[in-house]
Amino acid sequence: MAHVTVIHHHPWIRRGLEEALAEAGEFSVTVCSTVEAGIAAVRGRHRTSVLAAHELPSLDQLLSAFREAELRGVPVALIGDPADMLQRPGPLPPGVSGFLPEGAEPRALAHAVHTLAAGAAVLPLTMLWCSVARDPKEISLPTLLTLREREVLALIGSGLTNQQISDRLGLTAATVKAYVSDVYCKIGVDNRVQAALFAHGISPSRVLSSS
User: Fold this and answer.
1) 38-47 residue pLDDT tens
2) What is the C-alpha to C-alpha distance for residues 36 and 144, in angstroms, rounded to an integer?
């Protein structure tokens, strides 16, 4: 069973996240209300994924700890309001692998945590579209990726082939091929490499322009 460490200063949000993860039936959960307690909990259990409030007091102290050699491999995602995050200039802070909305449904939250633990970025689609150098004011949101499409995109980001995705998800090869085609269309990429970059929150256009 995978483990998640929730670090949040608001008790009702802590409780809500704990209940949502427990409802998925796939995680054991440790909840902490302070940075100090969160760091101590993770030091005692390195094989965990961390969900931390993006407005957590002393967040810089927490992220600094995760940049140390001992905890550098622990995946961390911030929890908060996507609208607030979009208003903040620049990329996510160093050491942060993604951002999750506080109101995520249990199934979507569980999927996001598994994606985070696999080493892929987890970002709302709006933030991913902003990461590919589009003006947020000009974004008319495309049809959102379905949960299955997000699963396929995450597995592409993990380097799996269509056949491996088919085996992992219990789908036919033709169905996976159709999902991959739909994902390419919705996120605006032309090939698997660009899709994998997109899954990790990296702009394919920026990589190409710097090469």
Assistant:
1) 999 999 887 8
2) 37
Q: Which of 80, 23, 69, 29 is nearest to 50 (CA)?
A: 29
pLDDT average, residue stretch 137-154: 63
Angstrom distance (rounded) from CA 175 to CA 11: 43
Cβ pair 114, 2 in contact under 8 A: yes
**184, amino acid identity:** Y
pTM score over 0.85: no
Is the separation of the CB atoms in 171 and 128 below 8 Å?
no
Q: Could you tell me if 160 and 168 are in contact, meaning their C-beta atoms sit under 8 angstroms apart?
A: yes
Q: Is the dihedral angle over the CA atoms 126, 131, 136, 138 positive or is it negative?
A: negative
pLDDT digits (tens, 9 = 90+) for 66-118: 888 888 888 999 988 766 665 655 556 777 888 887 777 777 788 888 888 88
Q: How far apart are CA 134 and CA 171, in angstroms?
A: 34
Tens of pLDDT, residues 150-204: 788 888 877 889 999 999 888 899 999 999 998 888 887 888 888 877 776 665 5
Buried b (16+ CB within 10 A) or exposed e, 81-94: ebeebeeeeeebbe
The 10 Å Cβ neighbour count of residue 185 is 11
Could you tell me the domains of the chain? 2-123 (3.40.50.2300), 136-210 (1.10.10.10)
Which amino acid is it at 35? V
In the chain, beta strands by DSSP E:
2-7, 27-32, 49-53, 76-80, 98-101
